[in-house]
């Protein structure tokens, strides 16, 4: 569960990115975060995994008040979430298996625990045949699937995705979305910032629309709703 209570974010240059955000996302939901460029979507997403801190207000993530966390507590809380980025953020000198396994090494999993779990996740994203390949040898869609496997490998309750199809062609974007749907059907909460109108309007989920740093709409089975 994720909850924001009267959350504001003002950057050092005086820009108000978010103003008075109140939202609650329940376990198992699939939520799109949409809005024009510069509306505050990325800030909204970054606050959820404590990449940014709110200027004011409270953010609850799985029972933790992450707006008040000490720096040493952040890694523990981040283990309960997985993050998928637009630009994949894979480690170039590690192969597919090593990139996914690294996420388990960080939480001090044993090799006996790591191998079957990594192979299970690579099976889920249909990349078991590429486990010895390096990121430079993969297509953009394959790199994003590795990123998803890495985000899932520690069994997080929530996946936060920031424009996960932004660098991909339409066909590959749909392949990635099918994986996110499967993840959600298995019980994982998915929160996704996206500009992809077609995906939002076809796979009708909850839509939180942000405009000018405020929530303009919050609709079940919503639509994208922007021309830009």
TrEMBL record:
UniProt main location, coarse: membrane
BP term (GO), one: cell division
UniProt cross-references to Pfam families, sorted A to Z: ABC_tran
Membrane topology label: Peripheral membrane protein
Record localization: Cell membrane
Coiled-coil segments: none
Entries under SMART domains matching the protein: AAA
PANTHER family reported for this sequence: CELL DIVISION ATP-BINDING PROTEIN FTSE (PTHR24220:SF470), IMPORT ATP-BINDING PROTEIN (PTHR24220)
Subunit and partners: Homodimer. Forms a membrane-associated complex with FtsX.
Official protein name in the record: Cell division ATP-binding protein FtsE
């Amino acid at each position: 569960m994720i909850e924001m209570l009267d959350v504001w974010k003002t950057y050092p240059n005086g820009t108000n990115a978010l103003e008075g955000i109140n939202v609650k996302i329940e376990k198992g939901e699939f939520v799109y975060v949409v809005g024009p460029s510069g509306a505050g979507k990325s800030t909204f997403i970054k606050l959820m995994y404590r990449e940014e801190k709110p200027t004011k207000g409270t953010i609850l993530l799985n029972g933790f008040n992450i707006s008040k966390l000490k720096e040493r507590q952040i890694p523990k809380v981040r283990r309960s979430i997985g993050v998928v980025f637009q630009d994949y953020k894979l480690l170039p000198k590690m192969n597919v298996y090593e990139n996914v396994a690294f996420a388990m090494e960080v939480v001090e999993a044993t090799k006996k625990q790591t191998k079957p779990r990594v192979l299970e996740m690579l099976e889920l994203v249909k990349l078991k045949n590429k486990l010895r390949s390096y990121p430079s040898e993969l297509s953009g869609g394959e790199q994003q699937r590795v990123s998803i496997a890495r985000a899932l490998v520690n069994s997080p309750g929530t996946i936060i995705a920031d424009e996960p199809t932004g660098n991909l062609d339409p066909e590959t974007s749909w392949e990635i979305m099918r994986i996110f749907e499967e993840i959600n059907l298995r019980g994982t909460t998915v929160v996704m910032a996206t500009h992809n109108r077609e995906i939002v309007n076809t796979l009708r989920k909850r839509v939180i629309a942000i405009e000018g740093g405020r929530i303009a709409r919050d609709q079940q089975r919503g639509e994208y709703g922007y021309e830009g």
